[in-house]
């Protein structure tokens, strides 16, 4: 299932992340770390990388780096502490976010990657010009370049809101219409049932607020990028693309890479 997440107003579930359409799975930084580190060393690194991302996204979504003013951030911090993330690490991250919050921007960039694959990079940075400069340096090394075309020409771009299943589907469908969602799906994960509201990406914040006012518990908010076409690569070419993605993910500002590779072969 495809694991897509929100650019700016992320409200990631602090207990687990969802998978949507495994065939088109994205490549998040915390997933890729485990491929380039030893198993023992990577376990803690993967966990803390994911927790730092959750803190940053909760701060961006809630509009404050102060837990007393941001209930979602407070829940994430509580969860991080339960997983033994040091208080000093949490506080240092919050201080850094507070200093850079107003300058932080998020964007999606389409890349023509090696072996004719297309990759979408999710970038969150407080110095986008500097980030793009570093990005261009890496792109030259991996024989890739920024696409001049629109992302929508290669991927279907939806906004996704995952909620608890508090009401019957008929009522949820009526609510979906009333809040402006384009569709709703009844989904299940680990024997737990949820609703998946689908909408235009630019409406995510507005519809999330409306669903919360209707007493839905928001589990996850994200972008969903589904390739309109996929390509099959040989094992050797897959290795080349994987190495390219690892180099791209070496930039802290690149949080996600989505591609149009047929992952059934992986």
Q: Uncertain segments of ≥5 residues (pLDDT<50)?
A: 1-27, 33-40
User: Helix tally?
Assistant: 8
Can you tell me the overall shape?
Answer: globular
**First-last Cα distance:** 13 Å
Condensed summary:
The protein has 266 residues and is α+β, with helices and mostly antiparallel strands. The chain is built from eight helices and nine strands. The N terminus is likely disordered.
Key words describing this protein structure:
about 270 residues, alpha+beta, 5-stranded antiparallel β-sheet, about 40% helix, about 25% strand
Describe the structure.
The chain is an alpha+beta fold and 266 residues long. Helix content is 40%, strand content 23%. It has 8 helices and 9 strands. The chain has helices at residues 29-36, 39-62, 71-82, 87-100, 128-141, 169-179, 204-213, 235-248; strands spanning 27-28, 105-112, 118-125, 145-146, 155-164, 183-189, 192-199, 218-227, 254-259. It has a 5-stranded antiparallel sheet with strand order 1-9-3-2-4. The chain has a 4-stranded antiparallel sheet with strand order 6-7-5-8, with helices on one face. Helix 2 (39-62) runs antiparallel to helix 3 (71-82). The longest helix is centred in the N-terminal third of the chain and has 24 residues, at 39-62. The chain is globular. The model is unreliable at 1-27 and 33-40 (pLDDT under 50).
Helices and strands in order:
Layout: E1 27-28, H1 29-36, H2 39-62, H3 71-82, H4 87-100, E2 105-112, E3 118-125, H5 128-141, E4 145-146, E5 155-164, H6 169-179, E6 183-189, E7 192-199, H7 204-213, E8 218-227, H8 235-248, E9 254-259
Antiparallel strand pairs: 1-9, 2-3, 2-4, 3-9, 5-7, 5-8, 6-7
